[in-house]
Amino acid sequence: MFLMTIVTLSGLTTHAQTDNKHKSRLDIKPKAKTTLSSSVLFKKTSFSLFQPSSLTLDRNINYQRSAYINQYFTNSFLLQPAKTQAIRNEAVAQPVVNAESKVDEFISSEDRLFSNEKLTVSNIYPNPADDHADIDYVISSQVGEAKITFYNILGNEMKEEVLEKDQRKVRVSTKDWNNGIYLYQLSADGKSLVTKKLLVRHQ
Q: Could you tell me the pLDDT band of residue 106, with boundaries at 50, 70 and 90?
């Protein structure tokens, strides 16, 4: 009887160990989670408030910035009158240059007898001429005197026309000239510049 009891207890112990060995890991109960106190959570999620009164400004930096700004505007106002005067002077000078350019534009390059920065003179037209012939020109105040002199084929002077500075065209009468070839010569300040031919042919 005692021996049977020992055998029975030994079999139960072996069965229990075998059952524990074959249990799934999923059957193992997880450990209880530790909970944090509300005071700890509150400390972690708390925020600090911005307090402007606790901050200080560097007044030296602000003062220097204001000084630079004031100096900038002071220089701007002081320089502006000079710039304005320069713009006004340019506006006054510009129309003069444009006026000379526009007057000079009506004499095309192929129709020019002579041209430089002081004097521009067109070829005489019409050529051949009948009763008269015209010459366009632009003369600068830097030129002392400019004139056109006409000669016949023998070199005799037929006519002389002075180019007035307040005019832009001179008309030469040829109605009393005989049919033939004539020469016209441009001179300025006593120097001969160019000579060309003019044909007179009365209808």
A: low
